[in-house]
């Protein structure tokens, strides 16, 4: 009881740097407002109002971010909200990346031209396969709750990459995951697959969060605090129990690697990517990847930099497994969305190489390289899923690879853009994918991970085979007579695909600007 | 009684939960096992708070409870919707997505 009284007297209100966390506040505030609008507006007005609010929020938050980033601010960053949120250069870079990628994803989510009424079910409560379900599939109108859900997920991601203690990180992890679980289950067509994806993602995601949380508890027991810097200090040389430290680290990293879809914790990825509505898949593939690796980078460089020689071997092995799984299983896929999912597992392996590229002197050359790679990969993926949503037949998207045969004869432009994006995923020069791989691999060599880079190059070569297989299929096969058609996209999808493809090209030709920006600072410790 | 026993109990409960997730078939039971894991973590957080002589761990346990409650809302909604479709909550029946 004395303890309680003593601690209660110490509590004082924390200082809040509102300028620094303004982007976060804008996104989360707008998410709450969006929920209210959903409750108050009549059905026919919701889509337009929600869309304007969501896009306006993203622009506003980006504006606040630019304003803060260009103003007078401490070079090493600030920790605000009693040290719970660290706003430093990598945070700002990741926030900007997340906001711009979310802009592209929201455009895909809002599109109503490709699928009349949008890719989302009109009412999630309608049972699949019933008369009402067949009626909703052709009727316009969609469940506009996806907009607030997207904003909440984005707010969670932004908090996740900036969180400076493990408890904030856990809460942010849940805030980003829970809306995503729901969004996976809202497809307008193939509802059974969509619901199944939601159940799988939810059960496995909750399982992984429990591991993450147990890791947090053990690290709290080890260090007496969940602040990343306190864990680093505690690990720097004490007689505390190493069991707690390494058990905690292992469990924590399992949770993080699950979210980042790194093999062997990738088992949910192909199923969820295939079953979820394609715009949501784009959002997950781009933004969740950025958020998860942002978190991994911060945890590894801030909290566990001192102990890198103990854990480096383990993550080394995980990166190898991830690249091999992604590249080899990707070869056997017959569905475009599953193929891109396995490609994302392979890319997660490359990203992990960048994340563990720490030098003994305490510098982290991999951080800026990984940040660049995340940005480049996100844009390419969003555009690729945008293209996937265009190839359709009478019952929705035609994702089976055999249906893509001869696509170039039906639509040279779509096939051309998709070819370019696949080459970027494969890492061919003049695309952002090449520059991304180049900077990550050079950072890894600088950190003494040359054998890993060799394995990564072999994995890239194997992965290039399945990208090229799609290209060959599109250009050198005859189209089937009852094959799918390529929908002419409306403005939103066109903008999203163009944005993704142009950024992929521009970063392939002039990457210096973004590379400089990614390398401006290090994590606040 | 030393606090270590509570840590061991918490590890035991966590393991029971983890094994339950892996072997049980019913989605609801799987989900309950996840909740068991979260509550096992709560027990160790509170025990560590006691060992460390600070209240942080107890406060964290409250955060975990709130998060677990939010997770129940979302999880039961998802499991309900698939149960209404299939008249079954068995995770083995959800097998359309593979290879």
TrEMBL record, chain B:
Enzyme Commission code(s) on record: 7.1.1.-
Membrane-crossing segments per the record = 6-23, 28-49, 61-83
Q: Which InterPro entries match?
A: NADH_UbQ_OxRdtase_chain4L/K, NUOK/Mnh_C1-like
Q: What class of enzyme is it?
A: translocase
Q: Which residues form a coiled coil?
A: none
Q: Which domain of life is it from?
A: Bacteria
Assembly description: NDH-1 is composed of 14 different subunits. Subunits NuoA, H, J, K, L, M, N constitute the membrane sector of the complex.
Q: To which species is this protein native?
A: Lentzea aerocolonigenes
Q: What is its main location?
A: membrane
Q: What does this protein do?
A: NDH-1 shuttles electrons from NADH, via FMN and iron-sulfur (Fe-S) centers, to quinones in the respiratory chain. The immediate electron acceptor for the enzyme in this species is believed to be a menaquinone. Couples the redox reaction to proton translocation (for every two electrons transferred, four hydrogen ions are translocated across the cytoplasmic membrane), and thus conserves the redox energy in a proton gradient.
Record-given protein name: NADH-quinone oxidoreductase subunit K
Give the CC-aspect GO terms. NADH dehydrogenase complex; plasma membrane
Gene3D superfamilies given for it? 1.10.287.3510
């Amino acid at each position: 009881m004395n303890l309680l009284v003593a601690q209660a007297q110490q509590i004082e209100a924390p200082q809040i740097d509102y300028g620094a966390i303004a982007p976060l506040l804008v996104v989360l505030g707008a998410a709450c407002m969006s929920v209210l609008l959903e409750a108050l507006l009549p059905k026919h007005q919701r889509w337009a109002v929600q869309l304007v609010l969501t896009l306006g929020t993203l622009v506003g938050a980006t504006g606040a971010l630019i304003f803060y980033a260009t103003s007078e601010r401490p070079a090493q960053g600030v920790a605000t909200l009693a040290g719970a949120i660290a706003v430093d250069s990598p945070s700002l870079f990741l926030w900007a990346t997340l906001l711009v990628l979310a802009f592209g994803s929201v455009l895909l989510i809002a599109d109503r031209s490709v699928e009349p009424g949008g890719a989302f079910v009109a009412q999630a409560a309608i049972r699949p396969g019933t008369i009402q379900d067949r009626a909703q599939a052709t009727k316009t109108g969609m469940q506009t709750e996806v907009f607030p859900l997207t904003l909440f997920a984005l707010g969670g991601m932004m908090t996740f990459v900036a969180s400076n203690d493990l408890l904030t990180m856990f809460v942010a992890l849940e805030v980003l995951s829970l809306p995503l679980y729901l969004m996976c289950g809202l497809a307008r067509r193939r509802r059974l697959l969509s619901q199944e994806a939601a159940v799988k993602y939810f059960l496995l995601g909750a399982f992984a969060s429990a591991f993450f949380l147990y890791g947090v508890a053990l690290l709290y027991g080890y260090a007496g605090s969940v602040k990343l810097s306190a864990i680093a200090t505690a690990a720097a040389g004490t007689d505390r129990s190493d069991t707690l430290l390494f058990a905690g680290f292992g469990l924590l990293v399992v949770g993080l690697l699950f979210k980042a879809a790194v093999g062997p914790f990738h088992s949910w990825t192909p199923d969820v990517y295939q079953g979820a509505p394609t715009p949501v898949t784009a959002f997950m593939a781009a933004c969740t990847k950025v958020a998860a690796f942002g978190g991994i980078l911060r945890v590894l460089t801030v909290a566990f930099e001192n102990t890198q020689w103990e854990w480096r071997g383990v993550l080394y092995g995980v990166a190898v497994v991830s690249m091999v799984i992604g590249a080899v299983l990707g070869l056997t896929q017959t569905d475009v969305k599953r193929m891109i999912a396995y490609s994302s597992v392979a890319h997660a392996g490359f990203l992990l190489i960048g994340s563990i590229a720490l030098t003994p002197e305490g510098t982290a050359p991999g951080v800026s390289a990984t940040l660049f790679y995340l940005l480049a990969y996100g844009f390419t993926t969003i555009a690729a899923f945008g293209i996937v949503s265009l190839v359709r037949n009478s019952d929705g998207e035609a994702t089976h690879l055999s249906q893509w045969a001869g696509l170039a004869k039906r639509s040279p432009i779509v096939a051309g853009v998709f070819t370019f994006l696949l080459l970027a995923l494969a890492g061919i020069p003049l695309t952002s994918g090449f520059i991304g791989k180049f900077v990550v691999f050079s950072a890894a060599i600088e950190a003494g991970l040359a054998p890993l880079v060799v394995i990564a190059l072999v994995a890239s070569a194997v992965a290039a085979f399945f990208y090229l297989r799609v290209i060959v299929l599109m250009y050198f096969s005859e189209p089937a007579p009852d094959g799918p058609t390529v929908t002419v996209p409306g403005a939103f999808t066109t903008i999203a695909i163009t944005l993704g493809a142009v950024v992929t090209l521009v970063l392939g030709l002039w990457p210096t600007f973004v590379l400089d920006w990614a390398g401006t600072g290090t994590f606040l410790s | 009684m030393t606090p270590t026993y509570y840590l061991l109990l918490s590890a035991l409960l966590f393991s029971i939960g983890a094994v339950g997730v892996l072997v049980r078939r019913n989605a609801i039971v799987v989900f309950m096992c996840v909740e068991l894991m979260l509550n096992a973590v709560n027990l160790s957080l509170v025990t560590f708070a006691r060992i460390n002589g600070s209240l942080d761990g107890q406060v964290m346990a409250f955060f975990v409870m709130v998060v677990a409650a939010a997770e129940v809302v979302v999880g039961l909604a998802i499991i309900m919707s698939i149960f209404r479709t299939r008249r079954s909550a068995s995770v083995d029946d959800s097998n359309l997505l593979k290879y």
